[in-house]
Amino acid sequence: MSGPKILETISVQKCFGGTQGVYRHESAETGCAMRFGLFLPPQAERGKVPLLYWLSGLTCTEENFVVKAGVQRVAAELGIAIAVPDTSPRGLGYPGEDDAYDFGSGAGFYVDATEAPWHHGYRMYSYVTKELPALIGEKFPVDPARVGIFGHSMGGHGALTIALKNPASYKSLSAFSPIVSPMRCPWGEKALTGYLGADRATWRDYDATALIEARGWQGPPILVDQGDADPFLERELKPELLREACAAKGVSLDLRMREGYDHSYFFIASFIEDHLRFHAKYL
Amino acid sequence: MSGPKILETISVQKCFGGTQGVYRHESAETGCAMRFGLFLPPQAERGKVPLLYWLSGLTCTEENFVVKAGVQRVAAELGIAIAVPDTSPRGLGYPGEDDAYDFGSGAGFYVDATEAPWHHGYRMYSYVTKELPALIGEKFPVDPARVGIFGHSMGGHGALTIALKNPASYKSLSAFSPIVSPMRCPWGEKALTGYLGADRATWRDYDATALIEARGWQGPPILVDQGDADPFLERELKPELLREACAAKGVSLDLRMREGYDHSYFFIASFIEDHLRFHAKYL
């Protein structure tokens, strides 16, 4: 982790006056090469810009959000950089790593695993909160004091839990269709059991509703968009649990139920501008 | 071709207040099942809306533009439907059909082939100009008197040649990075030889510059965006040939060279709004 960091450029393409890059580096946290996307708005040519992290959902790589969300247009207007990490280590070779869409590759759940063998490389929490910010801060003109975070589904869970645990590091927080309580849904129970073991007491540190109960949130309002035609709404996402936790602790939550929208990037694209303008108010 | 047409819905998803659909039907022209994307803006709930055809480039299916271009936001605002056909027949089983990215599958070049075996199903010109409009007109609330066309690369060639040959059917015309003279570039020479045979006289009917020389264009100005960092600019695209042909015939061309942009969907997304607002003026 010490010494100069090496960053390989996969591609840099002009987009809305800025540049959409894809980069690769050897990660000490995950023990493998990791890719991430970074959009730099045109304002980055003249000085440091605020930075917004996007955490993606199950099965995604860094590419999905970069090509499908239409984020660059508004980010270029507002002068915000957008960082998009991958969703797990890749190719570590653990038994069963590629067997399911909701565990292992593409499903890191933004935790630091404690169960073998996952604890060696499935350290997406530390990767996203420490290693990647240090690398981006060293290599790109971003302002480490003006950072926000958002994400979708598993990545909405990631954004919520990461910001709630690190309120000094993230000035703004929003999510699309987040898994708000992985302790209380099948996706989350499978992942937390696999990565953290059977002791549910340890899961509370990666459950947004439990974190709100334990710590509250002194930051600005939390913005959440949720489609009411989302096929995962009742079984996995359960936004009412977040509403209840926020209400109990006096946390300001702007939960917007969107009629007829599903879980896809067509939904995300439809409201991405709202989220960027929300973050820009606080960054 | 007679009798009621059967249309299968693959998916319909809410997007920017409208719906992004993907549909499949058995095509008489191509002899196989064809898929297309159709975005209907919210205005289509109240009556017929204008329709803009997008023709995609080499290797694309109907999906690329639908998920990457960010077109739905502006189309929803302006009340324009967007139809996106596939770029070739699929799975006809002709020898060599899947051997190259620039001929056969994904590379129909919007011609009606005359060479065997391609002449049986590689009839994308008739598919795009006749069969698909008849189907869409029967099944969806679009106004057949308010239709425009645009496309990218091979699809820019398709949009130009189709509109130039059918000026009564298309009220507006634009392109991104079009192949403006397939008779004079390697991609085009390969495709036209394969689909039409070695007699170059027959090629002129599918060459935008030759069509402008032969027929002119009485419609509104033609809008073309072209990145100056496009790796295919000098060898394949040659926008100067279009500029020369238009100048010689007094055709109004707005050719915008875009500094630093390449051939990708990041380029298309950056200027898609300009193109939709251009088409909206004439539709």
Query: What value does the Rg of chain A take, in angstroms?
Result: 17 Å
Helix content of chain A: 25-40%
Described by its quaternary structure, the protein is homodimer
Question: How confident overall, as mean pLDDT of chain A?
Answer: 97
Structural class of chain A: alpha/beta
Shape category of chain A? globular
Explain the overall architecture:
- The structure is a homodimer of 283-residue chains.
- Chain A is of the alpha/beta class and 283 residues long.
- Chain A is 34% helix and 23% strand.
- Chain A has 9 helices and 9 strands.
- A 9-stranded mixed beta sheet of chain A has the order 1-2-3-5-4-6-7-8-9, sandwiched between helices.
- In chain A, helix 4 links the parallel strand 6 and strand 7 (172-176).
- In chain A, helix 4 (154-165) runs parallel beside helix 6 (208-215) and helix 6 packs parallel to helix 8.
- At the A-B interface, strand 1 and helix 9 of A face strand 1 and helix 9 of B.
- Chains A, B: It catalyses: S-formylglutathione + H2O = formate + glutathione + H(+).
- Chains A, B: InterPro entries: AB_hydrolase_fold, Esterase-like, S-formylglutathione_hydrol.
- Chains A, B: This is S-formylglutathione hydrolase.
- Chains A, B: Its EC number is 3.1.2.12.
- Chains A, B: It holds the Pfam family Esterase.
Protein topology:
The structure is a homodimer of 283-residue chains.
Chain A (H helix, E strand, L loop, with lengths): L7 E8 L2 E9 L6 E8 L8 E7 L7 H6 L2 H8 L2 E5 L38 H16 L2 E11 L1 H12 L6 E5 L9 H11 L11 H8 L6 E6 L5 H5 L1 H11 L3 E6 L6 H18 L1
Parallel strand pairs in A: 4-5, 4-6, 6-7, 7-8, 8-9
Antiparallel strand pairs in A: 1-2, 2-3, 3-5
Helix pairs in contact in A: 2-9, 4-6, 6-8
